[in-house]
Amino acid sequence: MKRLEERIQKEGLVKKGNVLKVDAFLNHQMDIELFNEMGKEFRRLFPDEGITKILTIEASGIGIACIAAQYFHVPVVFAKKSQSLNLDAEQYRAKIESYTHKKTYDVIVSKKYLKPEDNILILDDFLAAGRAAEGLIDIVRSAGATVAGVGVAVEKYFQEGGKRLREKGVRVEALAAVQSMDEATGKIVFLRQEE
Amino acid sequence: MKRLEERIQKEGLVKKGNVLKVDAFLNHQMDIELFNEMGKEFRRLFPDEGITKILTIEASGIGIACIAAQYFHVPVVFAKKSQSLNLDAEQYRAKIESYTHKKTYDVIVSKKYLKPEDNILILDDFLAAGRAAEGLIDIVRSAGATVAGVGVAVEKYFQEGGKRLREKGVRVEALAAVQSMDEATGKIVFLRQEE
What we know:
homodimer; alpha/beta; 8-stranded mixed beta sheet; two-stranded antiparallel sheet
């Protein structure tokens, strides 16, 4: 998505440890007009009329998912990062290893909001190592529901997450796929995509 | 706001310790159509053309703030709950005591996204003891910016937060104000508001 790529080129910052900082418009300050364009693009990429719900994960996926949901006319559920080890029979749960924060946390979704008949679109801001998406897929499958696909604003294509998901047969769509980025020069190269 | 009150009556659950559980439509699963009605109502309550930004706090304020922002045509910034004690000169910071979780945490906002010329509308899902709103107000004022007001989906009017903020001269608007709720019977009574 050209507009998102341009914005990343203009305002994204390449930081130490393969971090792409886009907090000016995507995950701290949020440009809602841009989010609307992204929501329309997610709808174009996932035209399936059978999607029943959007699943995301707190915190930075929520805004993207809520704005996109307007084009799908479905509710959003966000998985919560749990700090307690309190096991609750009423929740689906997955362990996610955070690439950025180098730690493992539990995410939970109430069983009330995922049903076997659901066809779930997973949306998030970033796809890198793919652990968050995999955790959400596990949760959807625990509920006996179907994964319609995974949509992300930015895929760090040089990391293995997207490849691994695609090899498992999951449909993955990124609005902007970063092929390489250079901490020293700040240069960001996007994957050449078909028009 | 009648539609929100009706929804709370129908699907809200009164839990031990003065907890009102509305995770079916407000802060775990999110009804985006309802959020749009809420966004329009926030706009009606805060018609000020001078609002430059909406500030909220992760995680459950983000969806409400993003949908509402479409009616204000401004960006959203969400304050992040910080787990580190790492002091960063580039961030505004406030300490917030959580009523529900009985603990204190830091929230941070990058100095890049709050400027003295900003006129900030603070939006959140709940107002109870008022600590989150006060923390966000502190952050706005640390930036030398102005607080246009505080808007919440649900105010627990029987707790002291809203009263304390109003006494300090902050404009506070709640879409649904709970006057009383009863854990034993599940009964929820809303504050009688003018039409």
